[in-house]
Design brief:
about 160 residues, mainly beta, Neuraminidase, about 0% helix
Length: about 160
């Protein structure tokens, strides 16, 4: 599976065989730059940026749109940088609003937001990804533009 932003607000989702033969190609309005995650039903979740906000696109196994959700941050330009499945069948999204403010959004399997937490870190810290552990805890992975090394931050399953 390949997702690529080809211009501002135009992205292509492309599925190929293991030898590179194209199976299907779909165009979407928005800017893909987050991860692609497979879902239990064989579809895909793709994170990105649309209308200056965190954007989640759900497709079926053939790349047809199932839903398109925008999680407005009301702060600045935001985009999705991490997604992970949760034990209850939902997902947790990690969205960044700038290099200080980050949002953790818990959603159900239909993309409806259940909880939202905003975190503020020192300037020049970047969130990179989120993982859900076997006990439901959340691990946030990040880096810094300053001289300090990469870092790991742990939260409980409620984002606290």
């Amino acid at each position: 599976m390949i997702a690529a932003s080809v211009s501002l607000d135009l992205s292509i989702l492309l599925k190929t065989t293991s030898n590179g033969t194209e199976q299907w190609r779909k165009n979407f309005t928005g800017d893909f730059y987050g991860p692609i995650v497979g879902t239990k039903d064989g579809g895909y979740l793709i994170l990105g940026l649309k209308n200056r906000s965190c954007w989640l696109l759900k497709t079926d196994s053939e790349g047809s749109q199932v839903f398109d959700r925008i999680y407005d941050n009301s702060v600045t330009e935001s985009g999705g940088v991490g997604i992970s499945s949760t034990p209850d069948g939902g997902f947790v999204l990690l969205c960044t609003t700038d290099h200080e403010n980050h949002q953790l959004i818990k959603i159900d399997s239909d993309g409806n937001p259940l909880t939202r937490n905003t975190f503020k870190f020192r300037r020049n810290y970047d969130m990179e990804d989120i993982l859900v552990t076997s006990d439901g805890s959340l691990l946030l992975l990040g880096s810094s533009f300053a001289s300090s090394p990469n870092w790991l931050f742990s939260l409980n399953g409620y984002g606290q």
